[in-house]
Design goal:
alpha/beta, Leucine-rich repeat, LRR (right-handed beta-alpha superhelix), 3 domains, two-stranded antiparallel sheet, 14 strands, elongated
């Protein structure tokens, strides 16, 4: 006799057939066994106690070997328990329910912090945590991000700063709900092109790594608002950066940048541009298109002149140009009526030039020393 039961996945109820009451010898062919095994796995991953227990019952009835799955779930539970300190004795079905309903895993702290035991890996079994939305594991001993990260289709926040992850797998592109990705201080050497598939990404933190280039596909992350690239080995940035229309803050300090692409003019909502401690000799004339720019930081660069188009940056409030090679400023800077601070200390400006600049901006705090 065939018995029908229901299971719930992703909010949908589906009817599947089972052969409760039969043993493996009564199942006619291998395809039927495979079909039942698939149904059992769906039950076990439903996240509901009743369905999980039913799945275990069916598996035992048909002698379906699910030991590998059981081992995976116990391994995953032990790993997660390090971050949660549940400290309870639970049955396998109870463990599965608890794991599959987890919205957040957090185990972050400074290395050596009292009471903090660093994690040394992210197990591949993390692929089962389909409800996970936040994974925060900063300042651990993690060396690798497993390819199974791509199974986390609901992940929104991934924080891995302070680890030693030199490579990000291409499967990161499957995390299409990702909004915040923090990989600061991870020894990262390359960003995969698939990052461009993270279409909901708003914040990308890549400070203090070893990046020498950026993929052009980064320009496809058109929801990006905050991009932190400070302290890397970038000599150039791709022209596709101009496609990031919603970008508000671009941090590029402490990179050996020599030029910026003209396409930077596409950053029509940019408010903060940090280019301090770079090798820039000049700025592209298109910088005048950044009509919302409020803060421009260029201290400790190699600037010899500013483009005349700087006069178009009418919303500028803070400009840091200290320790460059400027001998004069364009007269158009007098048009910047909202300027509150102009730092020109450490530049070879003549006394006459300083007097002229002061007369142009009588209401602005100007620093020459």
């Amino acid at each position: 006799m065939t018995t029908y039961f229901c299971y719930r996945i992703d909010g949908k109820v589906d009817a599947v057939s089972s052969i409760l009451g039969k043993d493996k010898s009564q199942v006619n062919n291998m395809s039927e066994i495979d079909s039942e095994k698939e149904n059992v796995m769906r039950l076990l991953l439903s996240g509901q106690q009743e369905s999980i227990e039913l799945g275990l019952e069916v598996a035992n009835s048909l002698q379906i070997d699910i030991e590998a799955f059981k081992n995976d779930m116990n391994t995953l539970y032990d790993w997660v328990e390090k971050t949660r300190q549940w400290g309870e004795s639970l049955s396998l079905s109870e463990k599965i329910v608890r794991l599959l309903s987890l919205p957040r895993i957090s185990h972050s702290g400074q290395l050596g912090f009292e009471g903090f035991t660093p994690l040394d890996c992210i197990p591949p079994q993390i692929k089962y945590l389909l409800s996970l939305e936040v994974l925060a594991l900063s300042f651990n001993h993690i060396l690798e991000l497993p390819v199974e990260i791509g199974y986390l289709r609901n992940i929104e926040i991934l924080i891995l700063s302070g680890n030693r992850i030199s490579v990000i797998p291409s499967e990161i592109g499957q995390c299409q709900k990702l909004e915040i990705l923090d990989l600061e201080e991870t020894n990262l050497q390359q960003l995969p092109p698939e990052i461009g598939k993270c279409s909901f990404l708003e914040t990308l933190k890549l400070k203090s790594n070893k990046l020498e280039s950026l993929p052009e596909e980064l320009g496809n992350c058109q929801q990006l608002r905050y991009l932190y690239l400070n302290d890397n080995n970038l000599h150039t940035i791709p022209s596709t950066i101009g496609k990031l229309k919603k970008l508000r803050s671009l941090q590029l300090s402490q990179n050996p940048l020599q030029t910026l692409p003209e396409e930077i003019s596409g950053l029509e909502n940019l408010e903060i541009l940090d280019l301090q401690s770079t090798n820039l000799l000049c700025l592209p004339s298109s910088i005048g298109k950044l009509s919302r720019l409020e803060r421009l930081t260029l201290e400790n660069a190699q600037l010899q002149a500013l483009p005349a188009s700087i006069r178009e940056l009418k919303k500028l409030k803070y400009v840091h140009l200290n320790n460059n090679q400027l001998t004069e400023l364009p007269v158009g800077i007098s048009k910047l009526r909202n300027l509150d601070l102009l730092d020109l200390s450490g530049n070879p400006l003549s006394i006459q030039e300083k007097v002229k600049i002061k007369s142009w901006l009588p209401h602005c705090e100007i620093r020459f020393e």
